[in-house]
Amino acid sequence: MAGTAIEVRPMSFAVERGAQGLWNPELPELSHALNAFQLALPYLEPYFIDAVKEAIARIGDPSLKADAAAFCGQEANHSRQHRRYCRHLHDRYPRLAQYESAIQQSLVHSRRHDSLEWRLSYTAGYEAITAQLARWFLRNVNRWPKSNDEPFAALMAWHAVEEIEHRHVAYDVLRAVNPSYVLRARGLIGALRKTNADLQPVVTYMLEVDGLAGRLDSRARRLRQRAALALELLPAAIRYLTPGYHPSRDREPPGFKHWLMSHPTAPAPMGEEAVR
Predict the structure, then answer these.
(1) What's the confidence (pLDDT) of residue 202?
(2) Lowest CB count within 10 Å: 97, 117, 141, 209, which one?
(3) Quick one: which of 259, 3, 2 has its CA closest to 156?
């Protein structure tokens, strides 16, 4: 049986010792943008896993099957760790449960009514978004003011690296099942629209709880942040929509190989001593 270069790392993080949401008080809008983004992950990751697992039976390439199985293993670990993190946000931000329920129900509806081809195209599009966000995170992590939540920073670095590591898998699975360019483009556009629609109300709510939503300085920072994010994602979207594109051609960001070298084998669950 063919192997895979993608490693499934069963890591865990001491999120209960973190800042419970406002992981960087100097950048509250960024803090809550990332909080809002990962609020959906405990529900999205199983949705992606189900689509890829269903597709495996239609894939003939044993190497791609091995990559797909490893992808599912990594995504399952991500879902568990982000679920633990998000659970600790509810005490301070109780209405997050309502937003989570809406996200979950939309994915239940998609499982019931959307074709496998569409679910794979959405998965591949979303994975393109997260891979670009992972590059952005790894490029900028040392430029931000120091976080007061080291477990969160470690969780995000781990997830970012593994998104880069498996960036090609959902795309290759989609092409193996249905290579339609139109389908690929529709999946990316749908993922971008849905992500923005899910994210913005959550950011607004969390800033309201923190007493920041109505402040002019917070509004200005948020507008700059949204503009910067759009400029970050636009080149990646253009690349994705270019005929002949493949995710493996995207450059690996700074810090990616260093992280892999620092974590050569699957470690034991991370406690305080390993959160760096």
Answers:
(1) 96
(2) 97
(3) 259
User: CA–CA distance from 61 to each of 58, 64, 65, 74, 204 (Å)?
Assistant: 9, 5, 6, 20, 45
Helices (H) and strands (E) in the chain, counts: 10, 0
CB 141 within 8 A of CB 153: yes
pLDDT in tens, 209-246: 999 998 999 999 999 989 998 999 999 999 999 999 99
Q: At a CB cut-off of 8 Å and minimum separation 6, what does 146 contact?
A: 24
Q: Are 181 and 125 in contact (CB under 8 A)?
A: no
CATH of domain 22-265: 1.10.620
Q: Which residue has the higher pLDDT, 261 or 181?
A: 181
Average pLDDT over residues 51-69: 95
Better-scored residue on pLDDT, 160 or 12: 160
Q: Where are the domains of the chain?
A: 22-265
Provide the token pair at 108: 């239940």
pLDDT given for residue 148 in this prediction: 66
Is the full-model pTM beyond 0.70? yes
Two tokens at 265? 């084998």
HEC sequence for 62-109: HHHHHHHHHHHHHHHHHHHHHHHHHHCCCCCCCCHHHHHHHHHHHHHH
140: confidence class by pLDDT, cuts 50, 70, 90: confident
d(CA 195, CA 125): 11
Residue 75 neighbours by CB under 8 Å, 6+ apart: 45, 46, 48, 49
CB atoms closer than 10 angstroms to residue 195: 20
